[in-house]
Amino acid sequence: MGNERGLVVEREAQLIGVYVFSRDEVLRGIPLGRVRKNEKVCAGDYVYGYVSEDKNFVIEKIAPRKNFLIRPKIANVDRAIIVFTFKEPEFQSYLLDNLLVIYEKEGVGIVVVFNKLDLLTQEEREELSYWKKVYEGAGYPVVFTSAITGEGIESLVELLEGEICIFAGPSGVGKSALLSKITGVELKCGELSKKTKRGRHTSRGVKLIPFGKGSFVGDSPGFSKVEASSIVDKREIKDYFPEFHRYFCRFPDCTHTNEPDCGVKEAFKKGEIPPSRYKNYLKMIGAFIKESE
Ligand SMILES: Nc1nc2c(ncn2[C@@H]2O[C@H](COP(=O)(O)OP(=O)(O)O)[C@@H](O)[C@H]2O)c(=O)[nH]1
Ligand SMILES: [Mg+2]
Ligand SMILES: [Zn+2]
Fold this sequence. Notes:
binds zinc ion, binds guanosine-5'-diphosphate, alpha/beta, 7 helices, five-stranded mixed barrel, six-stranded mixed sheet, globular, 25% strand, binds magnesium ion
């Protein structure tokens, strides 16, 4: 029996890596039979147990999770760094808005990053500042970065607060490149595969890397499609658009579609809520508004 505390930094099939706080090292985790039966150990899990004679970490207990993300699969995330690019690959606001809803629901702190700024012309930079305003207006910190020139890296590091931070976003946007830059740990960066247009050589699971003072950052494989409505109840989705809460609607359960005296729809019409945010919301819930109104 023991009560050493550890953090699962990696889970790949039968291999479990546990960072043991008292020793500042990663050992192989061996879950006891009863742990194995009850719940699957996952990256981000805080575990309790002891170090065996052959230097394995015997997991006796998994601490209750404060949240659990499925893209990537990881528990107890304090902060998600959502990385996108303006081009290569082209920015998709619908994908970003879906991710924001999912992370908002899990109560994760969010930072939005636009990477590969080195590829942009002055004109494109200006176009991108429109999107910066959109997401800052929704309440998120937005950082412009380049893993090549190092632009914005310092600002990004300052935003890596909390114990567990993960980098998420589509394939090929530079998540691994940014993480390598920040941690100094060499991570495999995938070229965009011509055949599949997806990143190659990327790891399948999350791996948390110790960073700074008591933080861990995790790289994650990318994805090309996420629908918030497959995870979050459609009626709840509006709650996870922070800027909608600033407006008042006649009905407390207003879906912001065709109800009378809807403050959100009014704000959209006045241009206070950006068209993309409102339209992506409608798309997520599968609704249409009557244009004549
Ligand atoms: N020009 C430019 N290329 C980058 C930047 N960051 C990453 N890349 C390249 O984009 C490709 C995908 O990067 P990677 O880190 O594997 O993306 P991930 O799939 O999000 O992890 C690689 O060829 C990187 O070298 C950047 O800031 N600027
Ligand atoms: Mg990667
Ligand atoms: Zn409304």
